[in-house]
Amino acid sequence: MTRRTRGLLLHGVLILGTVLAMFPFYWMVVMATNSTSDIYQFPPKLTFGGQLVTNLRNVLDSIDFWGSMLNTVIVACTTTALVLFFDSLAAFAFAKYDFPGRRMLFGVLIGTFFLPVGLAVIPGFVIMVELGWVGSLKALIVPAAANAFGIFFLRQYIHNAVPDSVLDAARLDGAGFFRQYLSVVVPIIRPGLAFLGIYTFIAAWNDFIWPLVVLVNPDQLTLQVALQQLNSVHGLDYSRIMTGALLSVIPLIAMFLLFARNFVGDLAKGAVRE
């Protein structure tokens, strides 16, 4: 097999993979622009329809979309900022400082990966009741202010990316823990922070189970919980549901397009070794 043939085969596989990955999003847009009766056709209709404006009006009339969007933006942005700060601080301490109990604490941190997420729902709800936070956005933000995955990921990143010699030089210059963190560590781990920030924002934006449990005030619902109200006991209006899903995805796409160039640029810089 010649190099040209291998190249064409590789490009063909990549194109096929891209098409398969993009098809669910394309199908969501098709369903959002058609009526429910068109969606139930067989064979299925694969072209855009003219019902998008009507479906948008139905969604906005059914739920408080903009209020839920605002709540979700507040939760996602605040959670992401807190996770980046606390996780990077903890990761720096685990990676570059030797303190009593470090191995045991890190082992406990790793052990939390083996616990099912649903196992913490009931104890977490009891804690929120005791604190009086049920029905408040604080119940979503504070418990998610730090997570084991972010600490583990950044600990490995800092361990490999931040040279000990640079930190030793900073200490000789009189830099303390926070000065080393701000002036040395943060600039070096920007690619890792960018990845963790995007990952955390998307996870907070799409979270459904925990907000469904702790949010009881209709004015405090997040977007995913509000979209769940589009389901009807008399039947599923797929056109309305897919329109709401499309509206919830657009901010994520905009965020990726806005930060993708900087994210890729930071990764490229991190790959260059002086």
UniProtKB/TrEMBL annotation:
Tell me any Pfam family this protein matches.
Answer: BPD_transp_1
**What protein is this chain from?**
Sugar ABC transporter permease
**Which PROSITE patterns does the protein's record reference?**
ABC_TM1
Gene3D superfamilies xrefs: MetI-like (1.10.3720.10)
Tell me the domain of life: Bacteria
- Where, by residue number, does the polypeptide cross the bilayer? 7-27, 65-92, 104-127, 133-154, 181-205, 241-260
Do you know which InterPro entries this protein is assigned to?
MetI-like, MetI-like_sf
Q: Which UniProt keywords apply?
A: Cell membrane, Membrane, Transmembrane, Transmembrane helix, Transport
- Record's bilayer topology term: Multi-pass membrane protein
The similarity comment for this entry is: Belongs to the binding-protein-dependent transport system permease family.
